[in-house]
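Thread title: Can someone regenerate the structure for this chain?

I was given the following input by a collaborator and told the matching structure tokens would be attached. They weren't. Posting the sequence so someone can regenerate them.
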Amino acid sequence: MSRNLVRTIAVAGATALTLSMVACSSDGGDAGDASSSIDCSAFSSYGDLSGTEVSVYTAIVSPEADPYIESFKAFESCTGATIVYEGDKAFSEQISVRVQGGNAPDIAFVPQPGMLQTLVATGEAVAAPAETESNVDEYFSEDWKAYGTVDGTFYAAPLGASVKSLVWYSPQAFADNGYEVPTTWDELMTLTEQIAADHNDGLTKPWCAGFGDGASTGWVGTDWIEDVLLRTAGGETYDQWTSHEIPFNDPAVVDAFDTTGAILKNDDYVNGGLGDHKTISSTAFVDAGLPILDGTCYLHRQASFYANSWPEGTTVGPDGDVWAFYLPATDPDQAKPVVGGGDFALAFSDRPEVQAFQTYLASADWANERAKATTAGGAVSANKGLDTDLLTNEVDKLSVEMLTDDKTVFRFDGSDLMPSAVGAGTFWTAMVDWTTEDKSSEEVTTQVESTWPA
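Best answer:
Regenerated them for you:
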């Protein structure tokens, strides 16, 4: 299950908002008009869309929806179209019902490639126009385009993104102990050993971790395995694993479990400030990094959204109380593996105004409008045309740098790509059994393989 999605929709109630159309002249509008600062020259190719409407359906509700709504105003003002935005907590359950019932939105923001494929399979989705595809070719990597492509046809442009391949730490604690941010996996393990040797008091450990999340307990562990497998086996093997072209208990996957276990199942390395490795699954993921603040833990692997989990008053930044670095690759000179998530704009109509808006969403113009509107942070995108100077959040800047690096090999969260019975079921359970019951890597991977749907 996509945790970035869960955190986004954890706001009560559905939101349906209609954005009002504001007239805008080609030279930026009349003095005193709210739209007067908008340069409409970039919108001339969309034509005059006055009197048209485009409906958007998404899981993103207020307050997270507000920057999206604001970012659409330039398109509305310069083209004359109106964007009708509907955010719904029940999006994942309702989108298929609406599509199959003949009530599809013009555009849906789809949070998972597997869901996108399911919606395309209904026969109701339409391929993206050439203009949208051209923007994606210019501003996004082939990895991102591939997730919006089904059976060789390009359907959906990437929108927002999240990064999971981060390690949180205290810059001050590193400075006080003479530690440096590692740039390779070997350096990461050397640092882990050094911290363990320097702080052998039975309480302080190099790493802290927590898989606990109620009925969703275990998902944090799947992120660990995905990050490590992408580093140890590469993108092709990762793809074969998530699509079941190789079994879940393939030797490469077992090796990834063992490599991860060298950290998470070693009581000399975990669980700083919390206990031994068996406490990992009983520790709430939102609390797992907190021992960094009291000095009983030095390293915590967690996604970019964890920036919101630190207590009020915690300064997040390169010179702050906590900061994050890229989880190192085995050979960073060759590739920079990044695991993350994101959403995609899938259309169910080929009306001119829908195609124009879908093209706008794939542009650098929209990425920058969204960044300007997202003053509280959360405007991460893999769009290479995004002006990072517009980002107000240091974690956003770090994430965008990682996503747009030419060496980056991006892969979507693996459990989101698997059948839900596995990705949001037996894979989670296996991570709990692996840590709590000390089952071996071979045992738990074979356990999951036996549950893969025929």
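Confidence is low (pLDDT under 50) at residues 1-36.
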